[in-house]
Amino acid sequence: MGVIGFIGLGNMGGPMAANLVRHGHRVQGFDLAAASREAAASAGVTILGGVAETASGADTLLTMLPNGAAVLAVHRELAAIAAPGTLVIDSSTIDVEASRHAHALAEARGLLSLDAPVSGGTGGAAAGTLTFMTGGTERAFAQAHPILQAMGRQIVHCGGPGAGQAAKICNNMILGVSMIAVSEAFVLAERLGLSAQALFDVASTSSGQCWSLTSYCPVPGPVPQSPANRDYKPGFSSALMLKDLHLAQQAAESTGAVTALGRHAAELYERFAAAGGGDRDFSGIIEAIRKEGRG
Ligand code: NAD
Predict the structure, then answer these.
(1) Pocket residues for ligand 1 (CB within 6 Å)?
(2) Domain 3-160, CATH 3.40.50.720 — does that match?
(3) Could you confirm whether domain 166-292 is CATH 3.30.360.10?
(4) Which of 7, 16, 20, 146 could hold 25 in an S-S bridge, CB 3.0 to 4.6 Å?
């Protein structure tokens, strides 16, 4: 097995790198934050002094960073150092344009590259059960597959450069809109004197059925493991949902697609975050919807 360089060892990257170590990979890494470096070191990652040091001698490079600007800055540095043929995988959630730019940087230097954003959150990162949605050449996908398997359960090749990011933001736009729809239905049910359990029992086996209802129900009770049962502690924070809804809107604007509900969902999450809900789970938006009602 070759050496994997991992840059961005935060809430997601840390446990992902730990799973690579658990599967017998040699992992060297770097993060700007001392706390992330220390946690990764205790999980068996060899911590190096910077991006260039992490790239040197690695056959595969993985990044898990907050945004497109950070990814491009790091990938520029990686492209300058990495040996031709090195595989570069970016698992951050970023805009499609920046992702394609990162692919182009890699291609110009003879590197293989794959965008491979994830769903499954910090729980999936720790358990090694993430879903990877990937974009890039067949060759890059085939080479990345056994590495991604150490961190995820479902690995989908969505198409060429940027296709993984496209799948991610389309999926999360569905999620944001459906969570609001489910939340509105539960608030309306409360006003109508219909119990949450009764609505759940009907909708979960009827045409209103969806993941936001059956796996992540925004009211306490019907789905015991949903964040509603622990005062909306994330899970998946509203701030991250808002980030993804903004990326979807950015993509809609640049392509001329009409996403009226996606735009409205972004506005509602903006209001929720501005009122202090950013750190709460995204299903906590039901509380804002409940408060907005009359009487
Ligand atoms: P995080 O803030 O916990 O981790 C990001 C890490 O990157 C930080 O430790 C930071 O110090 C480091 N970093 C930033 N710039 C750097 C640089 N130039 N060089 C080295 N390190 C640098 O964020 P996270 O929750 O781990 O999320 C990472 C990515 O995964 C984001 O794009 C996010 O949208 C995506 N994501 C997160 C979740 C989730 O539930 N947290 C779920 C799916 C996808």
Answers:
(1) 7-13, 30-33, 36, 64-66, 70, 73-74, 92-93, 118, 121-122, 236, 240, 243
(2) yes
(3) no
(4) 20
